Amino acid sequence: MPKRFTDSAIWDKTWFRRLSPAEKCAFIYIKDKCDCVGVWDADFEVAEFQIGSQIDWQKLIEKVNGNIEILTSGKWWLCDFCRFQYGELKISCAPHKKYVEMLEKHRLLERVAKGYVKGSHTLQEEEEEEEEEKEKEKEKEKGVLGKRETGDIPYAEIIADLNLQAGMNYKSDGKVARQKIHARWQEGFRLDDFKIVHRKKVQDWKGGDMSKYLRPETLYGNKFEGYLNQLQRDTRISDVGRRNLKVAENWLKSQEEKRAQNE
Q1: Cα(55)–Cα(41) distance, rounded to whole angstroms?
Q2: Which sequence spans correspond to the domains of the chain?
Q3: 157, 149, 150, 232: which is closest to 194 by C-alpha?
Q4: Digit-coded pLDDT (tens) for 162-192
Q5: I need a labelling partner for 133 at 20 to 30 A (CA). Which of 10, 72, 143, 241 fits?
Q6: pTM over 0.70, yes/no
């Protein structure tokens, strides 16, 4: 097992003091079980078994003062881990090479290098900011930045379908939404493509931690084609499933009739 520095002052921090004993154990467990850059492949079942207590993991995230973030991969990241353990990472430093490679693997290197840890900048949001800058440059080159275009692009219909599927209330005249839609339209995507993406990502994300990303700037970004072509989970009942369901229904019906006869 790797040896790590520990922050003995954590016991004096208000947010840590307010955690329950089980939540304190959970936070320390994550710190001990994460990889060398603070990323934990969340296995709640094993964690609760070893801690000896059930944990409200979503509540824990809300109580740790921004020290834990859920990455787009679903893994958990201790945001200040690298800075506390290693100080300033340098690519030219041989002992730091392993940590730099791991950060690149988790797509966190640039963020750690820039000092984006706790706060409003999530990895998803950083990617969107970078992409927005690229979109602006493209729009400037075409001489259309700032213009409210209508033409043949059904902005209103696209946003209306997103609102219907995701239960949102986005405006069809939003500047960012129109820039994203325009960029994808220029690439050859059409109304039906947008509708397919809406349905696939609503099925994937609605009701979970990713539901906040059911928004134009995420859905219509540079991952649009990937969203469009991803395999959709098939929630239909198979023929075997229908037969098994019928058998179960018949069995329940027979049990109810027997109880009625006995009464």
Answers
A1: 16
A2: 8-114, 144-229
A3: 157
A4: 999 999 999 989 899 999 999 999 999 999 9
A5: 72
A6: no
